[in-house]
Amino acid sequence: MQAMFKSDPQRFRRYSIQVNDIKLDYSKNIISDVTLKLLFDLARSLGLTQAIESMYAAERINFTEQRAALHIALRNMSGRDIVFDGNNIMPQVAIELKNMRGFVEAVRDGRWLGYTGDAITDVVNIGIGGSDLGPAMVTDALRPFAGKLHTHFVSNVDATHLRNTLQGLEPRTTLFVVVSKTFSTQETLINACSAKDWFLEQGATQAAIATHFVAVSTQTEAVAAFGINPVNMFRFWDWVGGRYSLWSTVGLSIALSIGMSRFEELLFGAHTMDEHFRTSPFEKNMPVILAMIGVWYNNFFGAESVAILPYDQNMHRFPAYLQQADMESNGKSIDRQGHTVDYATGPIIWGEPGTNGQHAFYQLLHQGTRMVPVDFLLPACSLNPLGSHHEILIANCLAQAEALMCGKTAAIVTQELSVSPLSPKRKKTLLPHKVFPGNRPSNTIVFKELNPATLGALIALYEHKIYVQSVIWNINAFDQWGVELGKQLAKPIAAQLFSQVKSQHHDASTEGLIDYCINLRRDSTTQ
Ligand code: F6P
Fold first, then answer.
1. Going by CA atoms, what residue is nearest to atom 9 of ligand 1?
2. For residue range 279-329, what is the model confidence (pLDDT) as tens digits?
3. Which of 401, 372, 440, 438 is nearest to 311 (CA)?
4. Mean pLDDT over each residue of the chain, to the nearest integer
5. Which of 45, 120, 175, 487 is such that its CA lies 20 to 30 A from the CA of 215?
């Protein structure tokens, strides 16, 4: 890469692209014009143009579940109809947004009163996976835009999560938002039941549930069966995938936190990225560029993971959010024709906010044996300016990208050591340890500040990147059969733990572990 930079002073200009206020610098990659041309040719030959059209044309691209993937409709501000199954779905989207606005404004303005006549102060979102990660990540990321309501998120079936969250909350001023597309997810339902018990145990009446529990789902009957009045239910549709759903009423907790207008700015930001993705030639298309560079390392260099490193503390949940978005979408090994693939598909996604990661795992990024392509995300301006903090943060981010790319040669290390008082023997021993191989790739995504529109565009950027890669790998990005088996197997194990009865249905290890847990729990006073 260093040689390519030396021979082409225009490399940054040529290999960077801007969409609204988001700049993607992809010049620190092991790519040339030839590489990019071949990658775009590959995309064309694999039908990417058609695949993008199919998404916008509301085709059932999630063919195993016979569903369209229409998250783009949830933020469609173009005025164009989106026709699915013969109906323009845009009016339904507008109606739900309107319902959401009415409710959000009533709660935020203190007009939605709890059972004692007090206004709501705390919102507890109960959901998991896409019904938690998106809302939780965005709410945290946009904390500088939050109003007076305190938002909390409970996802884990470990009661500690619910208990810790409820500590200090008052039922009379707490609103529970139970979010589940299927309204059958075990963790969410048990958390919601326990939340209801807590609410009633503290003296609230059954009737009060109506004003303190609302649901977000596609399943009206299941919501009613759970005990939430469907009048207090916000709807979405099965053409919205769980991990693509924060743009729908699933984003209710986001809107309660930042207000409906800001929520619409988030949608607008995503829409601008959607339009860019739909209309730009591959060579100038940010999601396509990001995706094809990812394919380059995944399939031609054997890179197994991608590190997502936001230099913004409020984006601390962004890597976790992208783990579901990417790994649940592209963690597949069966192609669209039903055959086992003989190439790598979705990478492992991981990361932490900078600069924390620098003092933990960056050592491996710089000198380990694996290639880990990195995406740095960097706001140029802080929403929490304080002294020189932000300059130092920016400097660290840019320095890391530079260090990964340039490395440090043995010649430079030798020169540095030449002025040190160490013995020649010690210098010789140290030399190879201080060399950085460099030539390690990264993308740097810079934006002015992390506001709702920019965050919306960033999320949409990654959503489309994921879709493009699924097309290249010829897999379905929108189903998730791989999560089912564990759910199925957990049921009989839970029954065994309850009944404490031995069974011979499991392998020896699983059976042994079940017995061991039963015995430990028998001896314990706090089961
Ligand atoms: O188990 C995985 C999953 O189905 C995700 O795809 C989804 O986001 C999550 O569970 C929650 O599902 P639901 O919204 O139906 O409760």
1. 129
2. 999 999 999 999 999 999 999 999 999 999 999 999 999 999 999 999 999
3. 401
4. 97
5. 487
Contact present, 343 and 299 (Cβ < 8 Å)? yes
Query: Is 270 in contact with 75 (CB distance < 8 Å)?
Result: yes
- Kindly state the average pLDDT of the residues 504-512: 90
Q: Among this protein's residues, is 359 annotated catalytic?
A: yes
pLDDT at 501: 78
d(CA 330, CA 333): 9
Q: In whole angstroms, how far apart are CA 147 and each of 247, 386, 456?
A: 19, 22, 19
Q: Where in the chain is the domain with CATH 1.10.1390?
A: 482-526
Pocket test for ligand 1, best of 125, 133, 181, 332 (most atoms within 8 A of CB): 181
Task: Look at residue 503 and tell me whether its pLDDT is greater than 80.
Answer: no
pLDDT tens-digit series, residues 322-339? 999 999 999 999 999 999
Helix axes 424-434, 410-418, angle to 10 degrees: 140
- 487 a catalytic residue: yes
Q: Which of 6, 201, 359, 433 is catalytic?
A: 359
- Binding-site residues, ligand 1, Cβ < 6 A: 128-131, 180-182, 185, 188, 242-243, 328, 480, 483
Distance 320 CA to ligand 1 centre (A): 15
Question: In terms of C-beta density within 10 A (0-12 exposed, 13-18 middle, 19 or more buried), how is residue 64 classed?
Answer: middle
**pTM for this structure?**
0.97
CATH superfamily of 83-259: Glucose-6-phosphate isomerase like protein; domain 1 (3.40.50.10490)
Distance from residue 250's CA to the centre of ligand 1 (Å): 12
Q: How confident is the model at residue 234 (pLDDT cuts 50, 70, 90)?
A: very high
User: Which residue spans of the chain are classified as CATH 3.40.50.10490?
Assistant: 2-60+280-406+440-479, 83-259
From the candidates 96, 265, 328, 352, give the one annotated as an active-site residue: 328
CATH of domain 482-526: 1.10.1390
Note whether 326 and 478 are within 8 A (CB): no
Atom in ligand 1 nearest the alpha carbon of residue 133: 8
Q: Nearest residue CA, atom 3 of ligand 1? A: 129
Measure the CA–CA gap between 291 and 359, rounded to whole angstroms: 29
pLDDT for the residue numbered 127: 98
What percent of the chain is modeled with pLDDT above 90?
A: 97
Distance 185 CA to ligand 1 centre (A): 7
